[in-house]
Design a protein that fits this description.
The protein has five helices and ten strands. It is α+β, with helices and mostly antiparallel strands. It binds zinc ion. Pfam families: DUF1062 (PF06353).
Length: 194
């Protein structure tokens, strides 16, 4: 059995989708990759700043609210003050942070890397993503295998693509890793367009 690994890589942080007062409608906010730290004597507030992609209105997503300054290490606090790129990435890629702040996470731009599946060979396919992925597994499979919705549904129905039990491959989103298997049939060559 050939083992193939695909990785979904984000090319940008997810957009924050929320209502913009100035635009008067739902808008996509882009992560500025900057923190804002407000330190008062007793409390500390830290936000990650987003900007409306249409009108540049700023929106602050709360990272920490009214915490005691001593609850963060001086090193970590310094990283917030200096917009340390790794720390920015950690928060900007966290879709739960957006949800906690009342925004939806928009789909980031992405690419799928990994070898093509060799037609006719039984395959164990691992699809991985470093971040909690917004993408449906079906989208990844169809995009990388050039499958129409109809063909994909047929392949699922006759068991040509299988996942671990209980996973609905039509609806399920990718969470860090999924392992799929593909039979050795040649009835539906993976790369052929339908
Ligand atoms: Zn706006």
């Amino acid at each position: 059995m050939q083992k193939i690994i695909w990785e979904v890589q984000y090319l940008s942080p997810p957009l924050a989708v929320r209502y913009c007062k100035k635009c008067g409608k739902k808008s996509e906010y882009i992560c500025s990759r900057l923190f804002r730290v407000n330190a008062q004597r007793k409390y500390l507030d830290i936000w990650l700043i987003y900007k409306c992609s249409h009108c540049d209105t700023t929106w602050n997503a709360t990272v920490y609210s009214r915490i005691k300054p001593q609850s963060l290490s001086p090193e970590l606090l310094e990283q917030f003050y200096t917009n340390d790129s790794k720390l920015v990435e950690q928060y900007a890629m966290d879709i739960e942070l957006l949800r906690r702040n009342g925004a939806e996470a928009g789909l980031p731009s992405y690419r799928i890397t990994g070898d093509e599946i060799c037609i006719g060979k039984p395959t164990e396919l691992h699809i991985i993503c470093k971040y909690s992925c917004q993408l449906k597994i079906s989208t990844i499979l169809r995009e990388k295998l050039y499958l129409s919705q109809k063909t994909f549904t047929q392949m699922l129905a006759c068991g040509q693509i299988k996942s671990s039990p209980g996973l609905d491959l039509k609806k399920c989103k990718l969470h860090s890793e999924v392992v799929l298997t593909r039979g050795s049939d040649t009835g539906h060559p993976a790369k052929e367009k339908y």
